[in-house]
């Protein structure tokens, strides 16, 4: 395979990517946006396999603002060990983290606020804009995201002391609150016609939430059903706009990728409702994509092959690590 790949796909790292300035590739560790390496003030520390939604929201903001930065990748605890140098640099070893002008900052929203404030000038628009410049409105939107995250996880992990009907109701109510927030700037994004700070916060959660609820509960949150009868037209419009927005679309993972990576991070997820049909369809699509012969998927297949070739020593080590530790099988959900 390696000998048949175009030369640019063999490079271990890209500066601005082959033939493009954005969106970013997971292979890239330098993002310049047409500037020089001397302009780089930010180092982003994020997870190796791009599973972490909190890392994703920070990188989305950097990309949206076109801030030059470099990436250092660190394993999540659920699939590796953090190196000693990182735990010395970042107290607690938390991800994401950034280093800006020598200062280390953690907590994704704090990082994003600092970046937006530091890099907002005549060349770079502030992403906390419009009505979200009012602290109470911004806080309400962020609180709604945290509430949605909490009820989503409760439903997904099937807390036994709460009935499925109550979990579904709580989830519907949280989605309705998201609908209200999408009204502030008129949609389709939280920022109006284009994504803003709040979109960067919500996007990683919404894509994982949509994929997991479809897989484990058999419900497409864009389509009213007997299990989730309320309509969410503004949220549906947001999903449609996000799929058409190049940056958000480039960061969005596939449904099967999300549902396979979630259990190692959050624990066992439980099936309910009409999930059997959805699972079969998603698994079939996921298996078919690996053998996709559509010409439009050629670049994606080449990039996947390049990633495998470039990282084959790590792939082998990771594959045997569980066996070497005396474990049997693989994490539940895989």
Question: What can you tell me about this protein's structure?
Answer:
The chain is an alpha+beta fold. The chain contains 13 helices and five strands. α2 packs parallel to α4, α5 packs parallel to α7 and α7 packs across α10.
DSSP E strands, number: 5
Give a quick account of the main beta sheet: strands, pairing sense, barrel closure.
5 strands, mixed
Structural Rg: 20 Å
Rounded mean pLDDT score: 81
- Arrangement of strands in the largest sheet: 1-3-2-4-5
**DSSP strand (E) fraction?**
5-15%
Measured between the Cα atoms of the first and last residue, the distance is 26 Å
Computed structural class: alpha+beta
- Helical residue percent band: 40-55%
Shape: globular
Keywords:
about 325 residues, alpha+beta, five-stranded mixed β-sheet, 13 helices, globular, disordered N terminus, disordered C terminus
Write the layout of secondary structure elements.
Blueprint lengths: L6 H4 L19 E2 L10 E6 L5 H13 L3 E6 L9 H6 L7 E4 L2 E4 L1 H11 L16 H23 L6 H18 L15 H21 L15 H12 L1 H6 L3 H12 L8 H16 L7 H13 L1 H13 L10
Parallel strand pairs: 2-3
Antiparallel strand pairs: 1-3, 2-4, 4-5
Helix pairs in contact: 2-4, 2-7, 5-6, 5-7, 7-10, 7-11
């Amino acid at each position: 395979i390696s000998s048949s790949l175009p030369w640019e796909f063999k490079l271990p790292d890209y500066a601005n990517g082959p033939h493009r300035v954005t969106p970013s590739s997971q292979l890239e560790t330098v993002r310049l946006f047409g500037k020089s390496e001397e302009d780089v003030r930010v180092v982003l520390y994020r997870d190796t396999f791009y599973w972490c939604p909190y890392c994703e929201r920070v990188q989305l903001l950097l990309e949206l603002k076109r801030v030059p930065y470099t990436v250092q990748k660190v394993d999540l605890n659920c699939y590796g060990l953090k190196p000693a140098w990182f735990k010395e640099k970042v107290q607690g070893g938390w991800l994401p983290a950034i280093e800006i002008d020598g200062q280390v900052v953690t907590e994704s929203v704090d990082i994003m606020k600092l970046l937006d404030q530091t890099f907002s000038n005549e060349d770079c628009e502030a992403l906390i804009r419009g009505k979200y410049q009012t602290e109470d409105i911004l806080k309400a939107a962020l609180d709604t995201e945290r509430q949605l995250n909490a009820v989503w996880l409760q439903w997904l992990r099937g807390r036994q002391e709460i009935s499925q009907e109550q979990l579904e109701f709580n989830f519907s109510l949280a989605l309705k609150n998201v609908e209200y927030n999408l009204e502030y700037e008129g949609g389709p994004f939280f920022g109006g016609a284009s994504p803003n700070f709040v979109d960067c916060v919500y996007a990683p959660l919404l894509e994982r939430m949509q994929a997991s609820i479809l897989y484990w509960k058999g419900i497409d949150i864009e389509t009213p059903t007997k299990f989730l009868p309320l309509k969410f037209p503004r949220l549906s419009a947001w999903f449609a706009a996000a799929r058409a927005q190049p940056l958000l679309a480039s960061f969005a993972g596939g449904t099967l990728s999300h549902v396979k990576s979630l259990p190692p991070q959050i624990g066992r997820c439980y099936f309910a409702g009409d999930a059997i049909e959805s699972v079969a369809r998603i698994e079939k699509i996921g298996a078919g994509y690996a053998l996709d012969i559509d010409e439009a998927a050629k670049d994606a297949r080449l990039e996947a092959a390049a990633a495998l070739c470039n990282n084959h020593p790590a792939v082998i080590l990771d594959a045997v690590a569980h066996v070497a530790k005396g474990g049997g099988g693989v994490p539940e959900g895989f």
